[in-house]
Amino acid sequence: MKGFDSIAASMFPGEWNLIKEREGDSEASTILLEHSDFIFSRFPEQSFLLDRFPKRIADHTKFASLALSFGEVEDNPVLRSRYITEEQKFIRVFQLLWAYDNVWVETSLRYENTERIKEVLQNQEKEKRMFTALEKLIQNDSDHLQIEELADLEVLLELGLRETVSSVFVFENMHVCTWSNFDLNMPMFIGNSESLELLQTIITTEGLYVRR
User: Fold this and answer.
1) Distance (Å, whole) CA 12 – CA 49
2) How far is CA 45 from CA 39, 109, 119, 210, in A?
3) Which of 52, 121, 191, 207 is most exposed by smallest CB count within 10 Å?
4) What's the pLDDT tens digit per position in 51-98?
């Protein structure tokens, strides 16, 4: 089985070697997680956004009225319920992608506050999943792991969408990388153009959009 380094390197077209390029970045400890801006500037035509909106809302006042940030809604039961309804659309997309491909994640989980994570999850079973993943990362002195169980993917995705743990989800054969972000949108790199049709079908069926 390929290691994460070689899988990450294989995402990109041509002779471009991400791992070689990032050697000059002495501040970065991860391969993909800290390099989304660098990747998108290098491959603008293959850079997309997984979003609730079909195109960017130019009016900032109107966007602010529709935006959903977890930190701003978590203590409001009505707004939190609205947030979770939208969050489930992203989770269903990732559930289907997990069924079609091998999934890896590179994550900041090792460096985050576990007490804050428990506050965000509010679910003992999800907490157990999180701690199991954390133990694997610590044991391997690593920030990446392959996702074998759907429940593990769901927990890490939820923590990413809730702006608590930064992660990048890598779909090995599709050549797709998706970063967690704020306000319920996710930057996405699609290295294999043949994957785009399936992605668009899944994403729009679940009520989301993939757009530049």
Assistant:
1) 17
2) 11, 30, 39, 13
3) 207
4) 999 999 999 999 999 998 998 899 999 999 999 999 999 999 999 999
